[in-house]
Amino acid sequence: MLDDGRRSDYLKGGEGNTFALSDTGKKALRRYLASEGAFLSQHREMSREHYDGMDAPLTVNLSESPLAWLAKRKDKSGKPLLSKTQILAGERLRQDFSFACLMPDMAGGWKVEQSGLPRGGGKSSGDLNDDVIAAKDRVQRTLDSLEPKCARVLVDVCCYLKGLETVEAEQGWPARSAKIVLQIALNSLALSYGMIIQSKRAGGHISVWTSEPDHLQ
């Protein structure tokens, strides 16, 4: 494979016994990624949203997200099972979780698996490592701020893309109970992210949804 790459001028020799992409190889890679992206875009429903306090817009693959699938379902009154803000909160958690490559350890905590992280993108390995650690810390702080049962269902559904019936079977919960726990968990998550404002009035707490994009259905 390396010989083929050198013969096609895609690779050039580096220091020692290393190889790197040549200018020809970089151009070929860009062409491939562009064609791959065009193909994938036909099979994905992508949305980019920006919320106050976020470093960059959040990209959501609505066709892949189990939250988006749930949002298309309606309750007996005809209302969507999940709101737009609940979806975006869950997808924001998933984005951080995926980037940090978090996996549960045997003690039930969290650790960073860095071996499978992407390289490149104009950043050094040290910069990338800092970003991974920052993403891991954001997820850890967020999960620590939630009730354990809520944190567990968020990780299962938003990050591991498990269906509600699977979650119920694994946790030993009654049928249709995971949906209720997920709704509560997503409300708490959105509140933690500042996507909703909870104001106290006579008679209790009232949650006011904010920054909700209009085009997500």
Structure description:
- With 217 residues, the chain is an alpha+beta fold.
- It has a domain at 64-197.
- The chain is 48% helix and 15% strand.
- The chain is built from eight helices and eight strands; from the N terminus they run αββαββααββααααββ.
- Strands 1-2 form a two-stranded antiparallel ribbon.
- The radius of gyration is 21 Å and the shape is elongated.
- The protein starts with a helix and ends in an 8-residue tail after the last strand.
Main sheet record: 2 strands, antiparallel
Question: From the helix content, strand content and strand pairing, which structural class follows?
Answer: alpha+beta
What percentage of residues falls in helices of 4 or more residues?
40-55%
Give the rounded overall mean pLDDT: 69
User: What low-confidence regions span 5 or more consecutive residues with pLDDT below 50?
Assistant: 36-43, 102-125, 211-217
List the strand order in the largest sheet. 1-2
Alpha carbon gyration radius: 21 Å
Number of H/I helices:
8
Number of strands: 8
SSE series: HEEHEEHHEEHHHHEE
Q: Roughly what fraction of the amino acids lie in strands?
A: 5-15%
What separation lies between the terminal Cα atoms? 47 Å
Q: What would you call the shape?
A: elongated
